Amino acid sequence: MSQSSIAAASSNAARRGSATSRRILIGLGWLIFALFLLLPLFIVVSQGLKLGLGAFFTAIFEPDALSALKLTVIAVLISVPLNLVFGVSAAWCVSKYSFRGKSMLVTLIDLPFSVSPVIAGLVYVLMFGAQGLFGPWLQDHDIQIVFALPGIVLATIFVTVPFVARELIPLMQEQGTQEEEAARLLGANGWQMFWHVTVPNIKWGLIYGVVLCTARAMGEFGAVSVVSGHIRGVTNTLPLHVEILYNEYNHVAAFAVASLLLILALFILLLKQWSENRINRLRASAAEE
Predict the structure, then answer these.
(1) Residue 3, Cβ neighbours under 10 Å: how many?
(2) Which residues belong to any copy of the ABC transmembrane type-1 domain (predicted)?
(3) How far apart are CA 228 and CA 58, in angstroms?
(4) pTM above the 0.70 mark?
(5) Buried b / exposed e along 105-125 (16+ C-beta atoms within 10 A)
(6) In angstroms, rounded to a whole number, what is the distance separating the alpha carbons of residues 90 and 109?
(7) Residue 35: domain span
(8) Are residues 191 and 82 in the same domain?
């Protein structure tokens, strides 16, 4: 057998081995995905529908569930815009200016990623609770933060504060300041420069960050559980309502409400994927130019 034949046979064997390894790895990935992601989701939905659609919709439209849904939406509608303002402001400062403490600001933005949400909730209780640092003053002025909507919003803001900023900072740093400087030379003021130059360049990253922030806000459990007081129909969000139903052995209702959370999460996931695809296409077109 010639050397060329031996080399060709070795190459074919290596190619077959590589193809086999690829198939094994892909199959293993799908198996893990099915066991640890798809199967639990299927169980949640199937258990929610265990007693039929009537029981499913009864659990979802029960007054306490609707109250939990309403409170969840309110917390999202308040916390996400505030985090949007903070994220854009922080990204603008970090990417456009050099100042003392810049690295510290970037580090502090990531703080909620490293601090347990339960600890964050406990901090708010120690600050604003009846026996907390500001508790007596708040009681004297008839202001309630803990075990009320303001505490839930504060806890939600804390755990979601990095998402918009962390998405925008690298994007704005990559774009630089040339376009803003050109707009300034052409006579644009600060707001004109921001709305007509900066926002069009970051809008898809902005949407992506808002989607991530919304998903995290809707599913937050730990910090909200500490500051809410678990007052049924008053301070329970959807995740807390699921916990209460499950602890009461009302499993069908718990899984039905969990299915509602799952539907909302899937909708947000589709928005996330859509915005991510737009960002990737824009980056690819920018790289080609």
Answers:
(1) 7
(2) 69-272
(3) 25
(4) yes
(5) eeeebeebeeeebeebbbbbb
(6) 9
(7) 16-48
(8) yes
Q: Are residues 26 and 131 in the same domain?
A: no
* Whether 21 and 58 share a structural domain: no
> What residues contact residue 186 under an 8 Å CB cut-off, 6+ apart?
none
Residue from 36, 83, 75 nearest 212 by CA = 83
CB 115 within 8 A of CB 159: no
DSSP E strands in the chain: the ranges are: none
Task: Say how many CA atoms lie within 13 Å of 127 toward its Cβ.
Answer: 12
H helix or E strand, kind and range, residue 31: helix 3-33
Helix ranges (DSSP H) in 146-250: 149-160, 162-175, 178-185, 190-193, 199-219, 222-228, 238-247
Residues 38 and 22 grouped into a single domain: yes
Domain assignment of residue 268, yes or no: yes
Residue 254 exposed, middle or buried by CB count within 10 Å (0-12, 13-18, 19+): buried
In one letter, which amino acid is 250?
N
Give yes or no for a contact between 167 and 205, defined as CB atoms under 8 angstroms apart.
Answer: yes
Phi, psi of 50 (to 5 degrees): -60, -40
